[in-house]
UniProtKB/TrEMBL annotation:
NAD in keyword set: no
Name of the protein this chain belongs to: Dolichyl-phosphate-mannose-protein mannosyltransferase
Keywords attached to this entry: Membrane, Transmembrane, Transmembrane helix
Transmembrane intervals: 31-52, 92-110, 130-155, 167-200, 212-234, 250-269, 281-299, 311-334, 346-363, 369-386
């Protein structure tokens, strides 16, 4: 395993190579694509928790229960994929990394093979969203993967004269796969329906009207069938009985959610401190101002879409992005979900960013500044993610032999939340220091994530409510040097 310093050297040298504008044409995008695959795959090994969080443990747990799942809190799509790969490698963490590599390579390889906006697709991976999604173990990975192919099939419906119903069939299949991967996929379908209604009168005589209608009807049927399966097997549609109640009333978190919603337009900057202190909120408002500026800039290019053949394609992307983002925000008033952050706004951000990139290259003679900005943020995201570096495989190798002593445990609980680890950052030039609590670097959380990934049959607990404590594995029982 490379040391952190060696990894940073590689990143820096990579940046010097790919940022040179004298690299000709498509070659620089091919070089960048290779570095994207390598860095996306290996970076989690240099993060303390390896990209594993609480939701990851739930996905692992559902996968381990297959073919007899015990919960529909999350849909079965991602756990099924994890279980399939697990049968070959016998390790859920490794399964998640293999899947991530497949998704990344699949998107880039398909784009290059089909000549489907390869430059634009590579630049998508320099943004905040794909970087965050594909280094974490989360269902957004396959969700974005299916959405990218949804873009392709919708694009072909508008651009190709033949096989429109075939493309419509595959587009519907992608929408169904998105819903089976994340329940929020229904908001993508809702956005598609809203955009279809907006352009109804303008396309009702076009040769792609019926294929688009067929796509909506087929995908809607698939979603209803999966909801019916959930209801008959689990007794609920989307695991609504297992979700917590939302926070009530207007609060500072409402403001943070609104700011997070507006951040869906920003392709590169998505920093959101966990603190609700005054300096943190001021910082968030500065990001908000930047988001507004980006939205205005993007909209100038969006207006140029009226002059091209893909006008309705861009309308679908923009409308879907807005409907998805607002729908998620509204749903937070009725159920307990995460704050509006990079993860929650992932689909919306990719819709807008992809639309912008297509229009940018259609209307600009030079990619010099966009290329430089993309390379800069690609390196920034890589380095920022290592602001609190760790060695996941070392931590895992420490915990792994200890797990054999707890084979009879059925539950896992972090009883070390009071043991807080603070990271101090020193700035020698201004002689100031900054202290920050990294959530994923807390020892109790690290032990919980590693133990849960090693034995997903152990169900993690949010609260220590099990009466028989002998069935609970407490993180304090595990040693992490």
């Amino acid at each position: 395993m490379l040391a952190i310093a060696d990894f940073l050297k590689i990143v820096w040298i990579s940046f010097l190579i790919i940022a040179q504008n004298d690299v000709s044409g498509m070659l620089k995008y091919k070089i960048l694509a290779v570095f994207i695959v390598v860095i996306y795959f290996f970076q989690p090994f240099f993060i303390a928790n390896g990209g594993i969080g609480a939701d990851s443990l739930s996905y692992f747990g559902i996968a381990a229960d297959l073919p007899f799942p015990e919960t529909n809190l999350f849909p079965l799509g991602y756990p099924v994929l994890l279980r399939v790969v697990y049968e070959f490698c016998n390790d859920y963490f490794l399964s998640s990394r293999i899947l991530s590599l497949f998704f990344i390579g699949g998107i880039l390889g398909f784009s290059y093979w089909k000549k489907f906006y390869f430059r634009e697709t590579v630049l998508l991976f320099t943004g905040k969203t794909l970087f965050f999604v594909f280094i974490q173990t989360m269902s957004e990975g396959p969700f974005i993967f299916f959405m990218y192919f949804l873009f392709y099939f919708l694009h072909e419906i508008f651009m190709k004269e033949r096989y429109k119903y075939m493309y419509a069939f595959y587009a519907a299949l992608m929408l169904i796969c998105m819903f089976v991967t994340r329940y929020s996929g229904i908001y993508i379908l809702l956005g598609f329906i809203v955009s279809f209604g907006m352009i109804f009168n303008r396309i009702k005589n076009a040769n792609y009207f019926k294929p688009l209608l067929f796509c909506i009807l087929m995908s809607g049927f698939g979603v209803v069938m999966y909801l019916l399966f959930n209801y008959l097997y689990f007794g609920s549609m989307v695991g609504e009985n297992e979700r917590g109640l939302p926070s009530s009333g207007f609060s500072i978190y409402t403001i943070r959610n609104i700011l997070g919603l507006f951040n869906l337009v920003n392709p590169f900057v998505g920093l959101k401190p966990a603190s609700i202190s005054l300096p943190s909120m001021i910082f968030q408002f500065l990001i908000f101002i930047l988001d507004i500026a980006v939205a205005v800039y993007f909209f100038k290019y969006y207006k140029k879409a009226k002059e091209g053949k893909l006008n309705f394609f861009h309308i679908i992307l923009w409308t879907t992005a807005l409907v998805y983002g607002v729908s998620l925000w509204v749903s937070g008033w009725f159920q307990q979900i995460e704050e509006m952050n990079v993860r929650m706004m992932a689909a919306s951000n990719i819709c807008l960013f992809f639309s912008f990139l297509i229009l940018y290259f259609e209307n600009s003679d030079s990619d010099k500044w966009l290329w430089r900005i993309a390379c800069l943020f690609f390196v920034f995201h890589t380095l920022y993610n290592l602001k609190d570096p760790g060695n996941f495989l070392r931590n895992r190798n420490i915990i792994k032999p200890q797990m054999s002593k707890f084979t009879g445990k059925k539950y896992l609980y972090n009883d070390e939340e009071d043991l807080v680890t603070i990271t101090t950052y020193d700035f020698p030039v201004i002689h100031k220091s900054f202290k920050y609590k990294h959530t994923n670097s807390q020892k109790g959380s690290l032990k919980e994530n590693i133990a849960g990934s090693l034995n997903p049959k152990i169900k993690w607990l949010l609260n220590d409510t099990v009466q028989d404590k002998s069935k609970v594995l407490y993180t304090s029982q595990l040693k992490l040097k």
